[in-house]
Amino acid sequence: MKMKGLEVELWLSENRLPNTMKTRIMENVHRKLEENKNVHVEILFVLPPDYLSYVKRCLCLATLRKVPKLKDIDGLEELKGICDHFKPVIYAKDSFIIREGEALDMILLVTQGTVRSYTTSNGVKKDPTTPKHIKQGDFYGEELISWASKFPPSTELPISDKNVRSITRVEAFALTAEDLKNHVLLRYFWWQFTKGIDLNNLTDSQMLQLKELAVINPQRAFRGRKRAEKPAALPMKTRSMSVVPILSER
């Protein structure tokens, strides 16, 4: 149990979380270990929801600001809203995360470990490209934003032109295509991506949908600004535990 505690402390230090948050996370992890000393604790999957939300924002906000089409967004509350839709995922060493030629169905933000993206000679692209390493603070899947921001919306997912495979054990956060499309872009930032729409080519139903978005989203923006006026605070202590299932290799 002492060794597991040291591993948790190392994880907290590597991710540079605030000291106050470190203490609260340690308390929760120790409680989990006391319940079952033989359990293998994955920190991201035993945190209460409010703690997990805070950790996601600490680990993901800086990376989100690197993503094209998101990096110029001024509203911090909007970016925090995006963070809340990311889910923690863990991949073992040498696991396929995304396969070349298959649907690209998520954006991946790497927080620990190394991932390699590469093409093959018989893949989507005729000529293989130089492999790229995706490390802590990097992301993959930005093409999904262009797909999700189209209006009228497309029903077919884009195809990945690369394999994405873990070189080491990888901790990351993933935003699914469904959440990106239905809960992020069209709800938070639809006006950022509809500037080039040709209104003359829209059907009556599409025009109605656009008008509904124009009414709904300013209301959300107003509520977001009101929340932003409140001082930021660390999550309150809680005794509840939340266990999230780990995604397996595809």
From TrEMBL:
Gene Ontology cellular-component terms listed: membrane
One GO term of the biological process aspect: monoatomic ion transmembrane transport
Keyword Iron-sulfur: no
Residue span(s) of domain Cyclic nucleotide-binding: 77-142
Keywords for this protein: Ion channel, Ion transport, Ligand-gated ion channel, Transport
Name of protein: Cyclic nucleotide-binding domain-containing protein
Protein's organism: Prunus persica (Peach)
Organism lineage: Eukaryota, Viridiplantae, Streptophyta, Embryophyta, Tracheophyta
